[in-house]
Design goal:
heterodimer, A: 373 residues, four-stranded mixed β-sheet, 13 strands, B: 101 residues, three-stranded parallel β-sheet, 19% strand
Chain lengths: 373, 101
């Protein structure tokens, strides 16, 4: 581009005197879309990738698709008291590349991340650097063509890519949690901070298993989002085990490095592994029960591993040298395991999503998606 | 880019929000630290306690401060509870905070 803006453009420098009806955000008048993209880069309003310029028309369409008034409050971040309005969420959703029909999911995700138990401020400013994983369940996943199958965590599907990106842009732009000049102080960061959104592969759930949102109290006919503060996923292959016990033992090997007493952890079970749970007639709740009872180490073994360690030490079941033969489970309780089924048919690759702060200070939150407000 | 307003016909919206922040101003600074009760508010991380203690030792050595009053807010990722801060403020004249990873 040859005619990029030569200096930072701010609303105060270039404000229209007549904002369109309903919307109250400051307007910038610029020569065209390409100049807008550059201006948003320069103003620090991007995640490092080009954004779709949020025109009033596009933002209005986004709000109308979710039947939201611009001034509707979707969530209030509890620590700073920062308000996230539907208008600001919609602007950032347009910038992320969302279609209007994705807006109900974005709105529900904002509702979820601003629940006090999610501890949004803590997870977004922490040096531990968690990202927000958004898991979508229910009929809307097929309506908006979300990917839950082959390469579900990978690129190529607009809904997955842009809903997750919208959540991050909202956190950056509305709450000021940017990594370059804002409150994000992560030591390493996380690729999921660009986007991290997936649908559960409900068709591949083992027989008798409920989808995640139903397990967490939402009606099966409804759609819902579940948000998780996750560190980088630990993927593993287990191509030999053909029983639930063998597969869960493989999961346990990836849980042990977190240390004892993990309070909540997402277990991503691929369809090939899930099929073995159907074959064995396992119920969903048996997963957590088996791991809690069998994934243990003696106190002396935990201590030898140097666990728990560092910042996690205060939030875990802390081993004592006085009873070194006492077995301590890697899980705090059977309910600490939260299984989901995701991925394509081929390949026995599952994953653990290690939780921020061992799941003790940020809880998994599920909220319904309202398509008819 | 030539910044001619009449050529700027593409309108876009500001994605940021100016949050209202209540400002109470700074507490009055003491003229001297001599005899001051020093509050040490740690954030529950492992190294916050030795860090604060080390600073207190320096203060005690150089400024003849009074005894230290130590509390732990109990969760590094959340603000201290109001009751805890209220009690803390009643017990101290000056305060130090530390984030000790």
């Amino acid at each position: 581009m040859t005619d990029q803006p030569s200096k930072k453009q701010t609303p105060s420098e270039n404000v229209s005197v007549t904002p369109p009806p309903r919307l109250t955000s400051d307007l910038l008048d610029l020569p065209g879309p390409l100049e807008s993209i550059e201006t948003y880069f320069e103003n620090g309003w991007s995640d490092g990738l080009p954004v779709v310029p949020p025109t009033p028309e596009a933002v209005t369409a986004m709000l109308e698709a979710a039947n939201l008034n611009p001034d509707a409050i979707l969530g209030i971040e509890p620590v700073k008291g920062a308000v996230i309005t539907a208008e600001k969420a919609a602007i950032n959703a347009v910038m992320a590349g969302c279609k209007p029909e994705y807006m109900p999911v974005v709105a529900a995700a904002v509702d979820a991340i601003t629940q006090p138990e999610f501890n949004l401020h803590g997870i977004t400013v922490s040096t531990m650097g968690a990202a927000i994983m958004v898991i979508v369940n229910g009929p809307i996943t097929s309506d908006i063509e979300m990917n839950s199958g082959v390469s579900a965590f990978g690129p190529g599907y607009r809904a997955n890519a842009t809903i997750g990106r919208a959540v991050r842009l909202i956190v950056m732009n509305v709450l000021g949690t940017r990594s370059n000049d804002g409150l994000d102080k992560a030591t390493l960061g996380h690729p999921g901070k660009y986007t991290w959104c997936v649908a559960e592969n409900e068709e591949k759930l083992p027989e008798s298993w409920s989808p995640l949102h139903v397990t967490r109290g939402i009606n099966e006919s409804e759609s819902a989002v579940t948000v998780v503060s996750g560190l980088s996923a630990t993927q593993f292959g287990e191509h030999e085990a053909n029983t639930p016990e063998g597969i869960l033992d493989a999961f346990a090997q990836r849980l042990y490095p977190m240390g004892p007493g993990v309070k909540q952890v997402i277990l991503v079970i691929c369809p090939e592994h899930a099929a073995h749970f159907t074959k064995a007639g396992w119920k969903k709740e048996q997963v957590g029960q088996y791991l809690y009872e069998n994934s243990t180490k003696l106190t002396s073994e935990w201590i030898a591993m140097g666990l728990p360690s560092g910042a996690q030490k205060d939030s875990s079941a802390e081993p004592s040298t006085e009873n070194s033969d006492l077995p301590i489970s890697v899980l705090d309780s059977p309910e600490s395991a939260i299984p989901i089924v995701v991925g394509g048919d081929g390949g026995a690759w599952s994953a653990v999503i290690p939780p921020w702060s061992l799941g003790s200070r940020s809880k998994v939150v599920t909220r319904p998606i309202s398509t008819n407000r | 880019m030539t910044s001619n307003a009449s050529e700027n016909t593409f309108r876009v919206l500001d994605p940021t929000a100016q949050q209202s922040i209540a400002t109470d101003g700074m507490a009055e600074r003491p003229q001297s630290l001599k005899g001051m009760r020093v509050g040490l508010l740690r954030n529950d991380k492992l190294n916050s306690e030795p860090l604060l203690d080390a600073i207190y030792d320096v203060l005690a050595d150089r400024f003849e401060v009074a005894t230290a009053y130590r509390i732990n807010k109990g969760d590094a990722s959340r603000p201290a509870e109001p009751d805890l801060l209220s009690d803390f403020s009643n017990e101290v004249d000056v305060a130090l905070l530390a984030n000790g990873d």
